[in-house]
Amino acid sequence: MRLEDLLEGGALSEEDRRLAESQLGRRLRGEVRVASRCPHGKVQVIATSPLLDDGTPFPTLFWLTCPLLQREVSRLENGDFRDRLRERLSAERRLASALQSAEDDYRSLRQEWAERLGCGEKVRDLFSSRAGIGGTVAGGLKCLHAHLAHYLAGGDNPVGAMVHAELGDPQGRECPGDCRPFLGRRR
Q1: Are 103 and 110 in contact (CB under 8 A)?
Q2: CA 57 to CA 21: how far, in whole Å?
């Protein structure tokens, strides 16, 4: 994904903003863009600037908002899926290398956005020890939600791709195109 595409094509409409806020159960903060839509055209991933309006660091560039996907990824996190991913990353050098490339791209995109906002040096310093997806350590699998969000936003994230494959198509199976039935069942 290119930052230009995100900034130019990802503007939130008022309807998008209301939906994303209801999906997350909180008001959006900072500069926010639509990074991905579900098959029903609803916001499923947002991108948030690396610094909020008050200067608070926000390392999670891509945020999964779809409550159905949040629930399903939480189910994976509560099982042994992360352990299986860690085993594969340890055993498969190509997979570990692909994850490192995804992390590099993620950091570059976040840094490019920070440069445009005039806070590049501050963001570089704040996130120097947070080289992984979502602001975790490099190679971290703490939050599969962030990996899936990055993948759905167009990132070449192998962990996000594996999460997506493991989930199958819950949106096609369970979602009528209305997020409301899933809003009370967040992670």
Answers
A1: no
A2: 20
Predicted TM-score (pTM) of the model is 0.94
Q: Is 95 exposed, middle or buried (0-12, 13-18, 19+ CB in 10 A)?
A: middle
Spell out the residues 6+ positions from residue 152 whose beta carbon is closer than 8 angstroms to its own. Answer: 35, 36, 44, 45, 62, 64, 160, 164
Structure tokens at 41: 């055209």
C-beta separation of 127 from 59 below 8 A: yes
Q: What is the pLDDT of residues 118-156, one digit of tens each?
A: 999 999 999 988 889 988 888 888 899 999 999 999 999
Rounded distance between C-alpha atoms, residue 119 and residue 133, angstroms: 20
Q: 61: which 2 tokens?
A: 């560039």
Give the Å distances, CA to CA, from 115 to 120, 123, 151, 154: 4, 9, 23, 21
Q: CB under 8 Å to 177, separation ≥6 — which residues?
A: 40, 41, 42
Spell out a b/e string for 168-185, using b for 16 or more CB atoms within 10 Å of the CB, else e. Answer: eebbeeebeeebeebeee
